């Protein structure tokens, strides 16, 4: 590492964690950000994200979540800021469905921090939710809400505090490797680095066209709903409802409204956030309104606010964390597929350790780096 220079392109959710980790490990690192750390135009906006230990899709991520949790506490201590509120979250699933079976297996592994409720018990304990007859609930007592903009900002500020530089409001236009060196063009100049980490979220395919084969860029909507007249949502918990009726939601920090979102089939395909339509039509809103109507007896079904965000998905829905297909000194972190926030501190550490040639803190997480074959699966 001695004398080597590193650049991180994009200091959003993942890039801010990467630059903090590199700075912590003593690297000479510069970050470039199109806007400013903590902005809301990419994947990190909307004030809340779900943190959960329960894993219904890929149970092999359980040790990863544990490590992310530990790094989160470290960042909170270092930054002096509260970045999460872990008051519990519900996972709702149809009895016997494959994702519910996975969730129950994860609950088993989590032990006393996960409590399983039958349909009848769940309806009694969580009357804010109108569950289908075949649905059960699992309470993940150590899950809860992440404050995403604040987290990105805290990691970026902590990196700068440790000696990193962040060049804000600057778009990196071109990345090329020539021999061992990587050149990037930014602000009408060329800068040369030994290693470049790209964490450009939904902009990745525009910046690195070779990555487009692995990624699908989507516009995601969030809708915020107030209680209906005379109703209350006091004490409502964040939730995730598993397939086949996937949706998720979190109360706002003041507890007065509920933010809701739906799954991949409802996300608009876009080329890039730069050119994506930002107008949200009534047709666009309908799937989220249907969740408010069907699952929440106490919510008004017309949102008080709706907002668009952008995310890149891989075809397998597992992140691409690997070197660029043709540039061996460019490491790409992309395709977090609608679930990258909760593990972002770990992904930052993994990227930093990999480019520094160090062992991973969680050896079982090696599978994340062996992911190339999954990313190459056809659309
Ligand atoms: C609506 C929504 C809800 C979600 N809910 C959850 C949840 O509850 N739990 C969870 O774990 N995950 C959730 N996710 C997923 C999670 O938020 C994303 O996986 C994660 O934020 C992706 O991070 P990223 O770093 O790839 O992208 P971003 O955070 O968007 O960061 C990319 C950054 O790169 C910058 N950039 C791009 N191009 C350039 C360039 N050329 N030069 C310089 N800078 C550039 C951008 O400005 C941006 O800051 C959700 C996502 C969305 C959109």
Topology diagram in text:
Blueprint: E1 5-9, H1 13-24, E2 28-32, E3 49-51, H2 62-79, E4 84-85, E5 89-94, H3 98-110, E6 114-117, H4 119-125, E7 135-140, E8 144-146, H5 148-161, E9 165-167, E10 172-178, E11 181-186, E12 189-193, E13 195-198, H6 204-207, E14 215-225, E15 239-241, E16 247-251, E17 258-262, E18 268-269, H7 282-295, E19 305-314, E20 320-323, E21 330-334, H8 344-355, H9 366-369, H10 372-375
Parallel strand pairs: 1-2, 1-13, 2-9, 5-15, 13-21
Antiparallel strand pairs: 3-8, 4-8, 5-7, 6-7, 10-11, 11-12, 14-17, 14-18, 14-19, 15-16, 16-17, 20-21
Helix pairs in contact: 1-5, 1-8, 2-5, 2-8
The structure holds flavin-adenine dinucleotide.
């Amino acid at each position: 590492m001695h004398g080597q220079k590193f650049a991180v392109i994009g200091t959003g959710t993942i890039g801010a964690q990467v630059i903090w980790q590199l700075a912590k490990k003593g690297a000479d690192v510069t970050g470039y950000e199109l806007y400013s750390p903590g902005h809301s135009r990419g994947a990190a906006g909307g004030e809340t994200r779900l943190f959960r230990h329960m894993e219904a899709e890929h149970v092999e991520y359980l040790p990863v979540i544990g490590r992310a949790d530990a790094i989160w506490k470290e960042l909170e201590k270092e930054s002096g800021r509260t970045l999460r509120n872990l008051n519990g979250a519900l996972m709702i699933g149809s009895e016997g469905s494959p994702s519910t079976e996975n969730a129950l297996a994860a609950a088993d592994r989590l032990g006393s921090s996960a409590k399983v409720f039958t349909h009848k018990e769940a309806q009694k304990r969580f009357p804010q939710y109108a569950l289908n007859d075949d649905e059960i609930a699992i309470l993940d007592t150590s899950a809860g809400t992440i404050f995403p903009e604040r987290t990105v900002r805290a990691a970026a500020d902590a990196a700068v505090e440790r000696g990193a530089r962040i060049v804000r409001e600057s778009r990196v236009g071109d990345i090329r490797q020539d021999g061992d060196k990587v050149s990037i063009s930014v602000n009408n100049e060329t800068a040369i680095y030994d290693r470049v980490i790209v964490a450009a979220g939904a902009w990745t395919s525009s910046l690195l066209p070779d990555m487009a084969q692995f990624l699908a860029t989507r516009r995601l909507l969030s809708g915020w709903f107030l209680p209906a007249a005379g109703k209350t949502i006091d004490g409502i918990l964040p939730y995730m409802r598993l397939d086949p009726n996937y949706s998720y939601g979190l109360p706002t920090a003041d507890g007065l409204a509920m933010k809701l979102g739906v799954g991949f089939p409802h996300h608009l395909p876009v080329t890039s956030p730069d050119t994506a339509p930002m107008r949200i039509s009534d047709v666009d809103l309908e799937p989220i309104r249907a969740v408010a109507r069907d699952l929440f007896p106490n919510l008004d079904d017309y949102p008080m606010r709706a907002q668009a965000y952008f995310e890149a998905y891989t075809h397998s829905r597992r992140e691409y964390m690997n070197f660029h297909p043709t540039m061996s000194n460019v490491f790409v972190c992309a395709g977090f597929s609608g679930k990258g926030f909760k593990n972002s501190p770990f992904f930052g550490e993994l990227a930093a350790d990999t480019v520094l040639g160090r062992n991973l803190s969680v050896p079982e997480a090696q599978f994340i780096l062996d992911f190339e074959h999954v990313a190459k699966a056809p659309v």
